[in-house]
Amino acid sequence: MIETHETIDEFLARHSSDVEELIRKAAAKEILPRWRRLGEHDVDLKSGPHDLVTDADRDAELYLTGELATLLPGSVVVGEEAVHANPASYEAIQGDTPVWIVDPVDGTRQFVRGETGFCTLVALAVHGVVHASWTYAPVREQFATAVRGRGALLDGEPLRAGSPEPGRDLRVATSHPDYTTDEQKRALLGLWTEGVAPRSCGSAGLEYLAIARGESDATAFSWEAAWDHAAGLLLVEEAGGTHLTRAGLPFGIRGGNTLPFTAARDEATARRVVELLSRDAPGERERPGIS
User: Fold this and answer.
1) What's the rounded Cα separation, in Å, for the pair 135 and 113?
2) Which residues does the annotated region (Disordered) include (predicted)?
3) Those residues with Cβ within 8 angstroms of residue 195's Cβ, 6 or more apart along the chain or in another chain
4) CB of 104 within 8 A of CB of 61?
5) What is the pLDDT of residue 40?
6) What is the pLDDT, as a whole number, of residue 39?
7) Cα 35 from Cα 113, distance rounded (Å)
8) Same CATH fold, 170-278 and 8-158?
9) What's the CATH architecture for 170-278?
10) pLDDT in tens, 63-100
11) What share of the chain is helix, strand, coil (3-state, %, to 5)?
12) b vs e for 95-116, b when ≥16 Cβ sit within 10 Å of the residue's Cβ?
């Protein structure tokens, strides 16, 4: 547990590996035994046909909530499923208490379909600043970590996002149309242009990992839920990338961002994406799947 005189950085130096172990245990205990074994009674809808929740989501979050709060006494946990049950609990991100931000199964649709593209996301934030993050894709056996100012690692090896290859179309993962307003749809239309290859995103956490690895160039996301973004944004930052909103400011986990926003491998790519998101899209331009 954290000592009264201990800083968050000192706590992380002592306990980052403990957090990793807790996440591995949550996956082994609550997530992997249900992968490709879900019955209809194990899956529920939340806000729409693409917003699913399973027993794995709920039970993994309950396990992590108890263990993380014990590891750092005085901290609070903001988890996706707890916030769905009690939206007021999200307000803890606005406070001064250390906050664990948890998405137990990021990519629940992929999990339900029996695909490998899902992960568990945990971030530790204080005063709205993310200090550390953990991204675990258990079936793919990938574990990425980041500590502010200390870099990012994938399975113990340093991550460097690098820059896109000159002359190649930018690979950009975008929000699903069902989760965008009409104004955001118009903004995203700016990406359907020469030199950009947009596609619908999968698990947000794995999209951020792809940027940190240099496998993808940028995102264009239109929602603010901290559990989807906190871990991945720090991972991208510590791998040498950056993130910007349409207002040209870094994305803030406490909200109030001008959307959509981007995370990208480098500053030039981020500014290019923001420029495309901010221009007026001609009315006759159409993105597949958007009316």
Assistant:
1) 20
2) 155-175
3) 169, 170
4) yes
5) 74
6) 80
7) 9
8) no
9) 3-Layer(aba) Sandwich (3.40)
10) 999 999 999 999 999 999 999 999 999 999 999 999 99
11) 40, 25, 35
12) eeebbbbbbbbbbbbbbbeeeb
Domain ranges in the chain are 8-158, 170-278
Contact by Cβ (8 Å): 201, 221: yes
For 11, 70, 92, 125, 126, the CA distances from 96, given in Å and listed in that order, are: 17, 18, 8, 9, 6
Q: Could you tell me the pTM of the whole model?
A: 0.92
pLDDT for the residue 43: 76
In the chain, at which residue ranges do the beta strands (DSSP E only) sit? Answer: 43-48, 51-54, 76-79, 99-106, 119-126, 129-137, 142-147, 151-154, 157-158, 170-174, 196-200, 218-220, 242-245, 261-264
- Report residues of the chain scoring pLDDT below 70: 1-5, 46-51, 280-291
Distance, CA of 158 to CA of 152 (rounded, Å): 6
pLDDT at 179: 76
Paired tokens of 80: 């996706």
Report the pLDDT value the prediction gives residue 5, as an integer from 0 to 100.
53
The sign of the CA dihedral 21, 23, 28, 30 is: positive
User: CATH number of 8-158: 3.30.70.1350, 3.20.20.150, 3.30.540.10, 3.40.50.1470?
Assistant: 3.30.540.10
